[in-house]
Design goal:
The protein is α/β, with parallel strands linked by helices. The protein contains 15 helices and eight strands. The chain has an eight-stranded parallel beta barrel, surrounded by four helices. About 45% of the residues are buried. Bound molecules: phosphoenolpyruvate and magnesium ion (MG). Phosphoenolpyruvate binds next to strand 2 and helix 10. Keywords: Cytoplasm, Kinase, Magnesium, Metal-binding, Phosphotransferase system, Pyruvate, Sugar transport, Transferase, Transport.
């Protein structure tokens, strides 16, 4: 089975009736690049940069970061690499950067909020990413955006990083695409406004589910309430994708739901073609796409959007996945 799946690495991810998907990899380390390429990833849809900042005593320098981003960009060839700026806080801590003790870390000092508060390390990271953009198809992505102002403020720091590189005479892609994660309910609600500020959206279902359902993604005791197929989530997905389509910007999904083959009908019905998932999920999802009839799957998904409970949606999508395997 595993050997058979491996044969799919170089095969296009296309449904029986000709709908193509682009399957990219989420990466938590440089080591994973090898698995991603082996499993036929079409680029990196989410490069989590946290690991560069962890297990050390100080912020990584511009040079250190640049070397890593450049390596990944070069390895990806023509395919794009979406580098997400630091998403620390919440469950992730840094030894050398004492984050305050908080009652609700996931609602607290986290991700873009830290970057906009501590703009110096943020600018250093953006500078390193910009430099790597001269060596491949690199894109920037901001995590945990909840307002238009945050995007504007982050872009102001980005412009400073560009001006600095101009002064130093160092090359970068001046037209680099800058996207945002949609993972906070407010971002979904104002996705039409955010679509005017961003070059692309990537939906982070891991945090989105946590915030929409008010269910801590780390809390075992309420893990049974963590329902990616909750009707509220389906509606949020639809709102976001429609806003992106109306604005004419690309929208991808990079949360765990992208790696769940039962969700394929939802992407087909919504018109999402770009999925990014852990490298280990790529071949399994591709296998299911190859065995899916898009027209039929859309019908199933359309019915799911009318269902009233998480379990009804989950059962229906599971049954469909079973039938098309
Ligand atoms: C997400 O929230 O869905 C996501 C992809 O980001 P992370 O899991 O790193 O928070
Ligand atoms: Mg997230």
């Amino acid at each position: 089975k595993k050997e058979q799946l491996q044969l799919l690495a170089t095969v296009d991810a296309v449904t029986k009736d000709g709908t193509y998907f682009n399957l990219a990899a989420n990466m938590n380390s440089v080591k994973e690049m090898e698995i991603a390429l082996k499993n036929g990833a079409q680029g990196v849809g989410l490069f989590r940069t946290e690991f560069l900042y962890m297990d050390r005593h100080n912020f990584p320098t511009e040079e250190e970061q640049f070397e890593v981003y450049k390596l990944v960009a070069e390895n990806a060839g023509q395919a794009s690499v979406v580098i997400r700026t630091l998403d620390i806080g919440g469950d992730k801590q840094l030894d050398y950067f004492a984050l305050p003790e908080e009652e609700n870390p996931f609602l607290g000092y986290r991700a873009i909020r830290i970057s906009l508060d501590r703009t110096e390390p943020f600018q250093t990271q953006l500078t390193a990413i910009l430099r790597a953009s001269a060596y491949g198809s690199v894109k920037i992505m901001y995590p945990m955006i909840s307002s238009v102002d945050e995007v504007k403020q982050a872009n102001a720091v980005l412009r400073r990083a560009m001006a600095d590189l101009d002064r130093r005479g160092i090359a970068y892609d001046p037209n680099i695409k800058v996207g945002i994660m949609i993972e906070v309910p407010a971002a979904v609600t104002i996705s039409d406004l955010l679509a005017e500020e961003a070059d692309f959206f990537s939906i982070g279902t891991n945090d989105l589910v946590q915030y929409v359902l008010a269910v801590d993604r780390m809390n075992e005791q309420i893990a049974h309430m963590y329902h990616p197929f909750h009707p509220a989530i389906l509606r949020m997905l639809r709102t976001t994708v429609e806003a992106a389509h109306r604005a004419g910007i690309p929208v991808s999904v990079c949360g765990e739901l992208a790696g769940d083959e039962r969700a394929i009908p939802l992407w087909l019905e919504l018109g999402v073609k770009d999925l990014s998932m852990s490298p280990q999920s790529l071949l399994r999802v591709k296998h299911r796409i190859l065995n899916t009839n898009a027209a039929e799957a859309k019908g199933e998904a359309a019915a799911c959007f009318k269902l009233r409970t998480s379990s009804a949606v989950e059962e229906r999508l599971s049954a469909f996945a079973e039938r098309s395997s």
